[in-house]
């Protein structure tokens, strides 16, 4: 329940986390067209922020009174949030590695599947595969 002594600190931390994610998203939006944000992989960063925000929202469902929708969110939420965060980071790291591999090998053409839409598709495929065992 929301009034339990162990729930109050976790909900306060979750609120602070959601506020930090919101502040980061606002800063990200303000500097959307700058070279630093463009080179960071904006689409992957959005997916990463969504995963982080979802993970900070989950404690509110953990302390809520049980019901079928709450239990469903509790069951799927932890898998989805962390799968989304790790998939976004893995695809982003893989893209950077492929680009630097091409530079090391002195290849002058753009690597295949390096556009942002493919990165988002790969991320969602990884998340979908991770959600299958549930």
Automatic annotation (TrEMBL):
List localization entries.
Membrane
* GO terms for MF: G protein-coupled receptor activity
Q: Where does the chain cross the membrane?
A: 6-32, 44-64, 76-93, 113-132
Whether Membrane counts among this entry's keywords is: yes
Q: Which UniProt keywords apply?
A: Glycoprotein, Membrane, Receptor, Transmembrane, Transmembrane helix
How is this protein situated with respect to the membrane? Multi-pass membrane protein
Q: In the UniProt record, does the keyword GTP-binding occur?
A: no
Output the Gene Ontology cellular-component terms.
Answer: membrane
Q: Which Pfam families match?
A: 7tm_3
> Which segments constitute the G-protein coupled receptors family 3 profile domain?
6-134
Q: Which PANTHER family match?
A: METABOTROPIC GLUTAMATE RECEPTOR
Record-given protein name: Metabotropic glutamate receptor 5
State the organism named in the record.
Geodia barretti (Barrett's horny sponge)
């Amino acid at each position: 329940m929301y009034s339990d002594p162990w729930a109050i600190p976790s909900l306060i931390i979750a609120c602070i986390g959601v506020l930090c994610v919101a502040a980061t998203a606002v800063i990200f939006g303000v500097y959307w067209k700058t070279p630093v944000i463009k080179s960071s992989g904006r689409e992957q960063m959005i997916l990463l922020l969504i995963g982080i925000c979802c993970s900070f929202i989950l404690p509110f469902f953990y302390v809520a009174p049980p019901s079928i929708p709450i239990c469903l969110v509790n069951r799927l939420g932890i898998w989805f949030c962390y799968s989304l965060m790790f998939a976004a980071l893995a695809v982003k790291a893989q893209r950077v590695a492929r680009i630097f591999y091409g530079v090391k090998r002195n290849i002058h053409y753009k690597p295949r599947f390096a556009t942002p839409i493919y990165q988002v598709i790969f991320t969602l495929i990884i998340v979908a595969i991770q959600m299958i065992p549930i």
